[in-house]
Please model this.
Amino acid sequence: MNNILIIGAGLCGSLLALRMAQRGFQVTLVEKRPDLRKVTQDAGRSINLALSDRGLRGLRLAGVEEEAKKLCIPMNGRMIHDKAGNTFLSPYSGRKDEYINSISRPGLNMLLLDEAEKMPNVNIIFNHACEEVDLENASATFRDFNSKKETTITADVIFGTDGAGSAVRKSMFESHKFLFSFSQQWLSHGYKELEIPAAENNGYRTYKNALHIWPRGEDMLIALPNLDGSFTVTLFLPYENSDYCFANLTTPEMVHEYFNKEFPDVVEMIPNLAEEFFGNPTGPLGTVKCSPWNSFGKVLLMGDAAHAIVPFYGQGMNASFEDVVVLDEILEKYVPSRPPQREGVDWDTIFREYETLRKKDTDAIADLAVDNFHEMKEHTAMEIFQRKRKLETAFEAEFPEEYYSKYSLVTFKESITYSEALKRGRAQDKAILNLLDDGKLTEEMSLKEKLELVKKETEAILHDDEVAFG
Ligand code: FAD
Model:
């Protein structure tokens, strides 16, 4: 039987461990941190996440979708808050059954660890940080957090799911030198988490079923609901060189002045604003791209270790779960689950095929996530973008089979890849904005006529792109 070592028991690693065990492999899952089911978590580190269709598909594959859904709060749209405290709800889709979910990161991670641990062929080791990987021999060295001793684990193959700062990737970088491409691009903004506590009797202080956004141009606040009635709030703010930036907000008075000016309706909902602002860490936001993900057919990077992205499409975890689905489909081709036949697996071919299929899509979602950073902080407050959203929502409600906005293509249409969603979604956006700008979508036209015009313009843009880029 093939022995598989998975390094990093976060969201991707724990789902992968469960799925590989279900396929009959012998799995060892090693995590740097203590078992999160036994210790309290660090405050201020992305406590809840938006889970959507691509992520749900991964959970479904491993038979844990229904359990995960018990942890979910549906969010039907974006609730936009202006400076005067006015709000409006912009639905994510015109189709009633399409929404995203707020889910607790530790809750989901615990569920996946529980399910993986139930498998007789999974061994989970906590408090062991990977320091180095011998890529050719599929052997990794770990430091025990408690005893400080070193141990080495050798397997047939290793999966590096140790997140954005991956030690496995570092070993590839050092071993392959110029044959390993790596880029890390930071935004000039960082993020900080705050909390709107629950109201009495676990009530919600603002509308529960939405992702709340306070878009302010260069800075932005968002809030996602938790099951206990609280909201996890995330402030995205430039580090420096702006009237309001992390470098300038150095006293409680300054923080209050800033929030009173920019987000007055939030101040009363966060009783410990300054305390949390200074107590919680400021996190960086970056995109990691690298290749190859495969080393000697012995080691493969997956999840954030292979493709960390900025969080503005709410797709990092979803993409990481989709990684597991894509790998599983390839495994099904080469190592069918029935009859069990797991000796002599050609991992090199599997890993190469996986990367060829997957890389263009994770590159696409990385670029889309940066696009959405601008859309969320600036465009959601602009009139032309609001008109575009309204039109797209009407298209989706009236012609649900014919029209998917870029957001819907990425978030709800898991049957198409991220790279296809990027191509079509960008062309549609350009088409609608051009037509609105030129006044070509007139009041007199029926919705159907408007849709036909948008489709025609989209096809023309796609055609021009094809001619230009081949
Ligand atoms: P991680 O979840 O980072 O897990 C990596 C694991 O490896 C961790 O448990 C870590 O302790 C362990 N590890 C690290 N180094 C070592 C080592 N040397 N040895 C052993 N173990 C190690 N995604 C969404 O889909 N929706 C969202 O709404 C969303 N919001 C986000 C908001 C913020 C502010 C941020 C920063 C990210 C957000 N994401 C979101 C992205 C999401 O968090 C990641 O894409 C996802 O966690 C990736 O899973 P992973 O398992 O690859 O990495």
Observations:
- The CA atoms of residues 1 and 342 lie 6 Å apart.
